[in-house]
Design goal:
Elements: E1 2-5, H1 7-14, H2 23-33, E2 37-41, H3 42-49, H4 55-65, E3 70-71, H5 75-90, H6 97-108, E4 112-114, H7 119-125, E5 130-131
Helix pairs in contact: 1-2, 5-6
Length: 135
Amino acid sequence: MKILVDTSIWSLALRRKPEKVNPEAVALKMIIERGEDIYLIGIILQEVLQGIKNPKDFRILKDYFEVFPLIELIREDYIKASELKNHLMKKGKQISTIDALIASVSISNDCYLFTTDRDFEYIAQYSNLRLYKYQ
């Protein structure tokens, strides 16, 4: 199974205090240990890394993310994201440009999206976006 892991999940897993356990972080750990195909896109990588102030921690995290393939975006990805955003606006739902891009890339690359962002639930209702459900 191919899974694109959103910033919200990485933040829960990496930036919370060790004594605070959350189900999303546990699920992420399990899918990593199972050897699922986990992917990133540049904006997610940037969002996770840009909050790391300590240079040593930044290097460690940057190196950690090297094992996860980065989906390289092409012109068509941006066009598809625009079409998705326009489609949702017609349905009366505003979504961010970044969310449209993440959803579109997930769809185009046949990935499930693992996220806690509820906007993606709405996107999934009106598109081919598949959300990763953990239980």
